[in-house]
Specification:
This protein is α/β, with parallel strands linked by helices. The chain is 37% helix and 24% strand. The chain has a single domain, classed as 3-Layer(aba) Sandwich (UDP-N-acetylmuramoyl-L-alanine:D-glutamate ligase). Bound molecules: alpha-D-ribofuranose.
């Protein structure tokens, strides 16, 4: 069973479905409303566990009811939470999410996520020893992510940076990540260029090596040393794309850790991301291994040469 470490955020998601996004000063009737366990870090940890990996999470919650609930939910999913710490006198991270016709917009109040320090990650660094992959996102401080990347690399783990949400990064971050997985918008924000190939090439000149760009229901582009490849996502009945990126990154990491090729790992990842869109809620949508394998097999059968 591959071992994966995730260093990142835990959020309580406050999710509302809405006919549209209100303009400033406007109130519109919306709903239904749910609270759901989220945070890109925690979602990726749970998704890796549901894919069959042994997972440890590094993170911080506040000393409030949301914090205990989020830690317990990770434990129930089989994630090692020994490095999920509590910050006294601080609120747990909260995400306010509006879902409009299956797509989402997210506002984050980081709370304790913003207190995850390089020192926390250094203290928990023994978790990186023997890990196949280490996953990072940008809902915790950049200096913590950088330190985590350095430590994970030193321990021999493959490093994956899902740079969401956009935060300015030093070039070192691109070089430290074996795989850099932005979505289309983030690629443009990091590169300042709107074309995918041009944007990826700009990031490669800043030190990035393997770049995989998720492009929603179209699938994902691989930009590496070889010619760019689009891996198409299967068509599904999408109701909520929240967490699809997390499902993608987690399945990609688990497949790589199991020794799959880059192309096969992305094929598994697009299936996982697509399945995540078929259920409402980020955590609720994260698929289990059997579903991903079944969908991947159908996709392979339809296009055996890919
Ligand atoms: O990727 C989806 C996640 O982004 C949500 O769970 C929310 O918490 C935000 O972090």
């Amino acid at each position: 069973m591959p071992r994966i470490v995730v260093a990142g955020s835990l959020n309580m998601d406050l999710v509302m479905q809405s006919p549209r996004v209100p303009v400033l000063g406007e109130t519109i009737p919306a709903g239904p409303f749910v609270t759901s366990h989220g945070g890109k870090g925690a979602n990726q940890a749970v998704a890796c566990s549901r894919m069959g990996a042994s997972v440890a999470m590094m993170g911080r919650v506040g000393d409030d009811a949301f914090g205990s609930e989020l830690r317990e939910s990770l434990e129930r999913e089989g994630v090692d939470v020994s490095a999920v710490l509590t910050t006294e006198g601080c609120s747990t991270g909260v995400a306010s999410i509006v879902v409009v016709e299956g797509d989402n917009g997210i506002l984050i109040a980081p709370g304790a996520n913003g207190m995850l320090s390089p020192r926390d990650v250094r203290t928990a660094a023994p978790l990186f020893e023997g890990a196949s992959c280490a996953l990072f996102q940008l809902e915790v401080p950049v200096e913590t992510v950088l330190d985590g990347l350095r430590l994970a690399k030193r321990a021999g783990a493959r490093t994956i940076l899902n740079p969401a949400p956009f935060m300015p990064l030093p070039d070192e971050a691109f070089a430290l990540a074996d795989f850099f997985i932005p979505n289309r918008i983030e690629l443009e924000q990091f590169s300042g260029i709107s074309g995918l190939a041009e944007g990826a090439s700009a990031l490669r000149s800043r030190g990035a090596s393997g770049i995989v760009v998720t492009v929603g229901k179209e699938g994902a582009w691989i930009f590496g040393d070889a010619a760019p490849v689009l891996v198409r996502a299967p068509v599904v009945d999408a109701v909520d794309s929240t967490g699809a990126g997390d499902a993608f990154v987690a399945a990609f990491a688990v497949a790589l850790a199991e020794g799959e090729t880059l192309r096969d790992a992305v094929e598994m990842a697009v299936c996982s991301g697509a399945l995540a869109c078929t259920r409402f809620g980020a955590r609720e949508g994260l698929p289990r291994r059997a579903e991903v394998d079944a969908l991947a097999a159908v996709v392979k059968q339809k296009s055996p040469s890919s």
